[in-house]
Design goal:
Chain lengths: 334, 299
């Protein structure tokens, strides 16, 4: 073996590899988001790059990172340089704020609780609905296999859990004790607990495990669109929860990188008709009235409870249900 | 010559046992054993490999190529090659140094060092990744210092390289230690007595002796470096087009319903693995030939 040639080859390779990548944009933004928003932000990032170019003449390059919401918040706290976080629920951004990376009143800096789009939780079943699932109550029946992610790591999973709790509580004679009993039975039927919403979708849709997937509305519609309506059906329950996935600029990082202006506009543009249209096309419920009216047919009208009214806000809900030793730990035994 | 003892050399004179009635197995035992191992091989190794290529090409060549020249896919290939190009040479140097120290010298803590070298094999890769996050993360031991000085370790390329080095550390050393121990110090001592300097002894005596084992270790090390998922996943941060290696990229596009594209990139990894195997087989063949030639010269 000729070591000299090898060495020269390696050096050439290393040099060649160190170029490339995206060092040519004027502004680089990193959006750290949760699992099901991949398609949404892929489309939105392209639209925003055009918008920013028209507005300022600068080329903006937006990178995205996706994963379970809690896991992503943890990564930002541990040093992932996110200019903006677009997570599944307010508590996860609160955690980032508690680590000192952004102001604690972040949710007041943008309209509508900093949630440009909303969603809810629905049930996805196999074509023909072989187990006859019509509402939350059917999920606790013996022999029904349920797929939902782990509330410890996934934001969507926490919405799923709270929606089920809310359903049990609004039943006749419902109270905290009956609700606890209900979710205990429900999680007793859970077959696989993935770490993120997309993982659960893959488990249900691709690997064919389980009878019903508790999913984000947008995620359920996306599965239908990607894999054909001949395989799955969406079941809209009688009651669900208004899910508000919030967005925020990460103060400490944009100030260090000098990207505050672009990052702020990136989030504001989500509220514009263009941004709302992209959200609606990706099955998120738009908050802009005109766009919402245009896409009204797409979204089922159902009774939605809110975290603030039903659980006294995310901080309380998190501490009571999902912290170590909370209700979820008490009811979920392997 | 003991230079190749740790290499697993070809057919070990099977016909000697076959032709001797005393050691010959009955045909049905022989064929059952062969049948079982072939069936197992087909089911667990060949079938997945075929599936990967079948799924990758299901939408045709154009879709296959489009998946590979996608900017995010190219960036993942670049990052995977970069991580391997840095970690393999470093582990080659570390591995030779460690094996040298263990095989040629006696010192206190030697068995402890041998155990330490095996640590990456016994520790779960996820734990390995977490160690780097805990040390170099923003809230970690050294993280704040690195961030103050504008250096990124975790959730950036250096973290991925570090994690790769960690999980591939034992390959070269593990391959060399038994080899060098078996060789003993006689030849080096002779060389030193004849007046060679330390470097001369290393280049002209030690290195030629361990050459084949070394190359073998490097190949295994490289295969693992390119395929590593767990540890790299923890330190990556999953920034598209920036910190995703090929295995991570495969997982991401798979969960985006781009199944053909995911299998296309997976097939690229499989091709790299097959190439590795080819080179490995060639090395073994060359090593066996070198041994036979030496044996012929000796007789």
């Amino acid at each position: 073996m000729n070591f000299k040639t090898t060495r020269r080859g390696l050096i050439a390779l290393a040099l060649g590899l160190s170029f490339g990548s995206s060092a040519f944009a004027d502004v680089n933004l990193l959006n750290v988001s949760y699992d099901p928003t991949r398609e949404l932000y892929q489309e939105y990032n392209a639209a925003f790059a055009k918008h920013w170019k028209a507005k300022t003449g600068e080329a903006v390059n937006i990178k995205a990172s996706h994963g379970g919401s809690g896991k992503q918040a943890r990564a930002v706290i541990d040093g992932l340089d996110a200019d903006v976080v677009t997570l599944a629920l307010a508590y996860d951004i609160d955690e980032v704020a508690n680590a000192g990376l952004l102001a604690k009143d972040w949710q007041k800096k943008l309209p509508l609780n900093a949630s440009p789009y909303t969603s809810t939780i629905v049930l996805l079943v196999r074509k023909g609905n072989p187990k006859g699932i019509k509402d939350w109550g059917d999920l606790v029946k013996p022999g029904v296999e349920v797929i939902t992610p782990n509330p410890k790591t996934s934001g969507g999973a926490r919405w799923n859990y709270l929606a089920a709790w809310g359903y049990a509580k609004q039943l006749k004679g419902g109270n905290d004790a009956t609700a606890k009993d209900f979710v205990k039975k429900l999680y007793g039927n859970v077959k696989v607990l993935d770490s993120g919403a997309r993982g659960s979708t893959t488990t249900f849709v691709e690997r064919g495990i389980g009878d019903v997937l508790i999913a984000w509305e947008n995620e359920a519609y996306l599965s239908l669109k990607e894999l054909g309506p001949d395989k799955f059906e969406i079941v809209t329950p009688s009651v669900s929860i208004l899910a508000e996935p919030p967005v925020a600029v990460v103060d400490k990082i944009v100030d260090k990188k000098g990207t505050r202006k672009a990052a702020t506009e990136y989030l504001n543009y989500l509220y514009s008709p263009e941004g709302q249209e992209i959200a609606a096309k990706n099955f998120y419920r738009p908050t802009d009235k005109k766009v919402a009216a245009k896409y009204a047919k797409q979204f089922a009208n159902l009774k939605l409870i809110t975290v603030d009214k039903e659980f006294g806000g995310w901080d309380k809900a998190q501490k009571a249900h999902f912290s170590d030793g909370g209700v979820f730990d008490q009811i979920y035994v392997k | 010559m003991a230079a190749t003892i740790s290499l697993h050399l070809g057919p070990a004179h099977a016909d000697r046992y076959e032709n001797n009635p005393a050691t010959r197995e009955t045909p049905w035992v022989k064929w059952t054993v062969i049948g079982i191992s072939l069936a197992f091989f087909a089911l667990f190794l060949l079938l997945p490999l075929v599936v990967v290529f079948y799924e990758a090409l299901r939408k045709g060549w154009d879709a296959y190529l489009a998946a590979l020249v996608d900017p995010d896919a190219l960036s993942s290939v670049r990052l995977t090659l970069l991580a391997a190009a840095i970690s393999v040479p470093l582990n080659l140097v570390f591995g030779v140094a460690a094996a040298w120290a263990i095989a040629k010298f006696d010192f206190p803590g030697k068995s402890f060092l041998i155990t330490l070298i095996d640590l990456p094999f016994s520790v779960s890769p996820v734990v390995a990744g977490l160690i780097f996050v805990l040390v170099f993360g923003r809230t970690g031991w050294l993280g704040p210092w690195f961030i103050e000085n504008d250096m990124k370790v975790v959730f950036a390329v250096p973290g991925i390289v570090l994690a790769t080095i960690f999980v591939t550390f034992p390959f070269v050393a593990r391959e060399l230690i038994p080899l060098m121990e078996a060789q003993g110090r006689d030849e080096e001592e002779a060389s030193t007595v004849l007046g060679a300097s330390g470097w001369q002894t290393f280049w002209h005596v030690t290195l030629p002796n361990i050459k084949w084992g070394l190359i073998y270790g490097v190949i295994l090390c490289n295969a693992r470096a390119m395929g590593e998922f767990g540890a790299v996943s923890v330190v990556s941060g999953h920034i598209r087009g920036e910190t995703n290696t090929m295995p991570l990229h495969v997982e991401i596009i798979y969960s985006e319903y781009k199944f053909a594209a995911a299998f296309a990139v997976a097939s690229l990894l499989a091709i790299l693995a097959l190439l590795t195997l080819l080179v490995k087989t060639w090395i073994e063949w060359r090593a066996a030939r070198a041994r036979d030639e030496e044996a012929a010269e000796g007789s």
